[in-house]
Amino acid sequence: MADPAETPQGLRQQKPRFVDRTRAGLALADRLVVHRAEPRTLVLGLSNGGMVTAAAIARRLDLPLDIVLVRRLRATDAPRRFLGAIAEDGDPHLDPEAFWLRGVPSAAIAHEVARQETTLANRRRLLREGRALEIPAGGTVILVDDGVTDGLAVMAAIRTVRGLGIRRLVLAVPMAPAAAADRLGDMVDELVVLETPLTCGAVGGFYENFRPVRDAEVRELLANVPSPSEGPVA
């Protein structure tokens, strides 16, 4: 008798681990209680979906919330292939394991970087009214996303945040493949991850509810959770 958990193609389906992004954030918050109301600490969401998870952590730990803007860099002739990623005010992070990257002309990479820098500037105006990313000098950043696949976007965010004079960087994600978790763990001071599968497909497979998160919801989260200038960062 066929295993009901398998697809007709014989591929085992991912069993959801989390109800939704908020519940995943609360589970992460339980592992981060040492940072509750910690002075000069900021929760920083990465991606629209990551902001929902980050907001749950910020509320539970009584910490301010902001977003770091990141864009993936795509090959113009193969949009499903990623060159790397770039975060606002940061240098591009190119995928060191993409063997095919050597065949991409440098001019094509520069064009894609410039295109995504324009998008980042537009999103900064949309989500933060043009305000630059504010991080307390010498403080702690808890960087949060709703999940990791290849880790390129997180790596780009880490590079940007590290360059802003912080004291400690914590990465908190509900799931990350074991290999990606190992790489990311070497780049941060503390890694909190709830699930580390050997392999994974889409992040959404780990959630029962993985609805799209619109820009309007991100703006609402930023408006309703204290900003760095309002929260306990001094």
For the termini, the CA-CA separation is 63 Å
**CATH architecture level-2 label of the domain at 21-70 and 136-224:** 3-Layer(aba) Sandwich
> How are the strands ordered across the major sheet?
2-1-6-7-8
CATH C-level class of the domain at 21-70 and 136-224: Alpha Beta
Helix content: 25-40%
| Number of extended strands | 8
Helix and strand sequence: HEHEEEEHEHEHEH
The percentage of residues in β strands lies in 15-25%
Instruction: Give me the number of helical elements.
Output: 6
Poorly predicted runs are 1-13
The Cα radius of gyration reads: 18 Å
The biggest beta sheet is recorded as: 5 strands, parallel
The CATH topology label of the domain at 21-70 and 136-224 is Rossmann fold
Mean pLDDT over all positions: 88
Overall 3D geometry? Answer: globular
In terms of structural class, how would the helical and strand content be classed?
Answer: alpha/beta
List the helices and strands and how they pair.
Blueprint: H1 21-30, E1 41-46, H2 48-61, E2 65-68, E3 70-75, E4 78-87, E5 93-94, H3 106-128, E6 140-144, H4 152-162, E7 168-175, H5 178-185, E8 190-195, H6 215-224
Parallel strand pairs: 1-2, 1-6, 6-7, 7-8
Antiparallel strand pairs: 3-4, 4-5
Helix pairs in contact: 1-2, 2-6
